[in-house]
Amino acid sequence: MENYTKYKLKKNDELLSLLDGKDNLFIIACNKCFKKFETIDEPECGEFEKLAAENGKTVTGSARVDFLCNKTQTEKKLQDMIPEGTENIFVISCGLGIQTVADLAGKPVYAASNSLNYTGYHGMALTERKCDACAQCYLNITGGICPIVDCSKSLVNGQCGGAKDGKCEVDSSKDCAWEKIYQRLAKQGRLEEFLNQPVQLRDYSKVDYKYVSNYVKSIRENRLDGYYGGVHPAERKEFTEHLALKRFPDPEVVVIPLSMHAGAPANPIVQVGDTVQVGQKIGEAAGFISSSVHSSVSGTVIAVENRGHATRGECLSVVIRSDGKNTLHESVKPHGDLDSLTPDEIVEIIKEAGIVGMGGAGFPTSVKLKPAKPVDTILLNGCECEPLLTADHRVLLEYADDVIFGLQAMLKATGAEKGIIVIEDNKPDAIELMKEKTAGYDNIEVSVAKTKYPQGAEKMLIKRTLKRQVPQGGLPADVGCVVGNISTTKAIADAILRGMPLVERVVTVTGERLKNPGNFIVKIGTSTKELVDYCGGVTGDDVTFKAGGPMMGFDLSDLDVPIMKGSNGIIAIDTDHTVEQPCIKCGRCMDVCPMELSPLYFAKFADEQNWQGMKEKNVMDCIECRCCEYICSSKIPLVSKIKAGKTAVRGMK
Amino acid sequence: MLITELKPRETIASLVDGKKVFIINCIGCKEVHFPEKEISELEAELSASGNVTGIMTTDYICNPDNMKLRLEKHAGEIEAADAVLVFSCGVGVQTIASYLEEKAVYAGCDTCRLPGFQGVTPLEYKCDQCGECYLNLTGGICPITACSKSLVNGQCGGAKDGMCEVDSSMECGWERIYRRLEAIGRLDVLKCPTQVRNFATDDEVSAE
Fold first, then answer.
1. How far apart are alpha carbons A505 and A391 in whole angstroms?
2. In Å, how far is A394's CA from the nearest CA of chain B?
3. Do B91 and B149 have their domain in common?
4. Contact, B57 vs A234, CB < 8 A?
5. Residue whose C-alpha is closest to residue B26's, from B121, B118, B115, B109
6. How many Å apart are CA A275 and CA B192, to the nearest integer?
7. What's the rounded Cα separation, in Å, for the pair A306 and A318?
8. Angle at A549 between CA A543 and CA A553, to 5 degrees
9. Does residue B106 sit in the same domain as residue B67?
């Protein structure tokens, strides 16, 4: 692998004169980027420390920092890095790292290194191709060989005539670029086209630093807007965002897993042969963190056995053959208005209705609504930041009143003063409608958030909306919040207003490979395959199916799994063919991690089974949003490595 | 890290006019900059003419191994095309061109220099990689990039009210350096002997 070390320690005589008259030094070295990823200490730091010590200097300390040029992270690290008594800071890094520290340190900062010039190496992967960023790409007329970087003289109108035996006269180890260009164009039959080109002039004014500087400034502001990190994957919501909800045709058979939530699976309370009705409880919550399960059809239980499950492989499930009548169970009846219910009664209704977080995590809502600490604000996550999915968007548009009612119930249950519905700015219709609908309530407001993934993650949502930071390992309640999902909130309204437990949900079935995408109200337990078939199936072969969105969804190898409480989407997308490449320390995973972690270490430590190292790098804080994997230029499956690390770290306790 | 700008429409039209094209979009550096919206509009227009054999949107085509794996899936569409139009930086276009040596491979974008590209993140600081870092004489403000004239021995004298005479919207780099040195109590470094800039080539500097 090419080593793109961008700096080199200055020569001893220069360093000695630099050290002259200075004492109490602190040394910061950047852990080099764009090179093979090794965690052994970079040698230059020691070399300089030794030089300083030999010359009788006091070194107050030293630090090796990853990506010094990452200003946000460096600023944080510098806070308690430099010990009392330090007078001078020496930085070993490229010019960017040195300038970053000089700007932040408030003390004299000196460069102990020179930056090396790797002209043209801009690709993310460490490649031999170069680009000089001339802002007037000539590759179109040269068959894709760059005359600016491949010709020693950067000629743009043909060879200089000095080449000997095909080798450059400036550097005889180099092929003449123009001979290479000629040969390639000859091969493609494009010589005539080339020779008829007008003379090319290089316009040096095109390299407009000011435009670029302003641009960089604005994208940095955008990038750090609201919270650190995050990415902007292609949204592709246009497939379904305008499609009104349709009730999915009743399935003949439903397979209802007893585990569709965080915590213990429910215990089955029906047997084969039993007749059940819509809303009848068929599984009893098996503990505090657990949830009841209800029938979504009326009919006969035909099996209670292990069946395929989208996230757990297999799971004990109740299989019911529908009688097609949808007869309601006697327990399904309205609970009256909110004024007549106490907070505890509301929580009890939610618990009995088997309501769990419908964004995917499946945490029992009744537990969430009894936080250990006082809560002043409820945030409703209307971001739906996952690409492709539009289920919550449609719920906001078509069940706005239910969402507001559900939010009022949550406010009453928790005693919070304020409810904020946070919607991303890519859903202007939902924002407008919710603003209009909530205008009459002083305890509810609508907050518009600039689109950025993973905005819907509760910690990001809280930071963005309330500027509060959930402590490490903490819960939203630690900063006085509860975060709720839109579909969950609607389910709360169903449970209170209509007495209907959680037996159906809105599912987006979409993806570039699905023939007829749509948003459907689907009974829990409906087969995923039926949904895909109903939507006309897929185009072509080599399709990847996922339960959920493209970022956090689970790969489905088998479509014969049921829709569950957390199934917000089924997507059929192009399969991406890549293989894991070695990490090149490009640092982009660190740049996008919203939890401000260093994912590159997780990949390395997982491969070495260094679980202690994973723990020290705070792997348990990872929210598995997959930003790092999305941005990884080496296509390293970071999230599966992180999951392995988390499992191992949990086992260490 | 690079930023790319779409070439003028007429240029692109002249490249692909009457030809069947396969299109490759590289969004690997999208978080820095990629004219995604403009490109998808353009592609919709081209597709409407019926001359597009296929579109592949992917990332990091500068990584040759994964680029090959992904391109193989589109071999038929590429075969059917007269030309391949790539929307990426110059590195990406060259990587594709060397892989598809027998096809006409065209660049749909121009690539602009990004200050601080060698770092992780686009940054307000610039480093010209001069190979002889002056920052220790200037309080950590780079005279090569912060002074329009890249002077290494103090201001030219042309600044007016602290603004550069070359670009009046830019602060005089040497005034900033002076203020910084004053703030950290190191005005004495200005008494350092005259600096001479070494313009030796990269290879010479690296070889030292």
1. 9
2. 25
3. no
4. yes
5. B109
6. 94
7. 9
8. 80
9. yes
Q: If residue B182 lies in a helix (H) or strand (E), which one and from where to where? A: helix B173-183
Residues B55 and B86 in one domain: yes
Q: Which of A204, A222, A255 is the last residue of a domain?
A: A204
Mutate to test the interface with B, among A87, A117, A152 (most CBs of B within 10 A): A117
b/e per residue A593-624 (b: at least 16 CB within 10 A): bbbebbbbbbbbbbeeebbebbbebbbeebbb
Structure tokens at A641: 């490595």
CB neighbours (10 Å) of residue A145? 24
Give the burial string for B17-46 (b: 16+ CB within 10 Å, else e). eeeebbbbbbbbbbbbbbbeeebeebbeeb
- Nearest CA to B123 out of A104, A584, A123, A598 is that of A104
Report residue A525 as tokens: 């337990």
* pLDDT tens profile B151-174: 989 999 999 999 999 888 889 999
Establish if A372 belongs to a structural domain: yes
Q: Is residue A267 situated within a structural domain?
A: no
A518-523 vs A554-556, strand pairing mode: unpaired
* A261, A324 Cβ separation under 8 angstroms: no
Please state, in angstroms and as integers, the Cα–Cα distance from residue A429 to each residue in A247, A398, A420, A425, A441, following that order: 22, 11, 17, 9, 20
Same domain, A414 and A488: yes
Contacts 24+ apart (CB under 8 A), A193-196: A194/A141, A194/A142
Unique residue bearing structure tokens 């650190």: A228
Closest by CA to A378, choosing from A366, A390, A369, is A369
Q: Identify whether residues A29 and A160 lie together within a single domain.
A: no
Chain A residues touching B120 at Cβ < 8 A: 33, 67, 69-70, 586-588, 590-591
CA dist A245 and A391 (Å) reads 9
Q: Is residue B105 part of a domain?
A: yes
**Residue A127 placed within a domain:** no
A2 pLDDT band, cuts 50/70/90, is low
B140 and B99 both lie in a single domain: no
User: Looking at residue A476, what DSSP letter applies?
Assistant: G
The confidence score (pLDDT) of residue A117 equals 61
Same domain for B145 and B70:
no
Judge if A365 and A472 occupy the same domain. Answer: yes
Kindly state whether residues B157 and B188 are assigned to the same domain. yes
A514 forms beta bridges with A538
Q: How far is CA A3 from CA A584, B14, B204, in A?
A: 9, 40, 17
Selected residue with higher pLDDT from B113 and A302: A302
Is the same domain home to A30 and A79? yes
Residue of chain A nearest B122, judged by CA positions = A216
Count of domains observed in chain A: 4
A113-115 vs A253-257, strand pairing mode: unpaired
Q: Compare all CA atoms of chain A with the CA of B185 and give the residue at the minimum distance.
A: A108
Query: Could you list the residue range(s) of the whole structural domain that residue B200 is in?
Result: 135-207
Asked if residue A364 belongs to a domain, the reply is yes
Confidence band for A384, pLDDT divided at 50, 70 and 90: very high
Residues of A in contact with B28 (CB under 8 A): 124, 633
| A300: Cα within 13 Å, side-chain hemisphere | 4
Which residues in chain B have Cβ-Cβ distances shorter than 8 Å to A208? 112
Q: What is the pLDDT of residues A131-155, one digit of tens each?
A: 777 777 788 888 888 888 889 898 9
Amino acid at A393: H
Q: A15 and A162: one domain?
A: no
Average pLDDT along chain A: 90
Are A95 and B129 within 8 A, CB to CB? yes
- pTM summary value: 0.84
Q: Determine the structural domain holding residue A487 and report its residue range.
A: 342-498
Question: Which residues of chain A make contact with B90, given a CB cutoff of 8 A?
Answer: 122, 129, 131-133, 137, 139, 146
Lowest-confidence pick of A228-232, B133-137, B151-155: B133-137
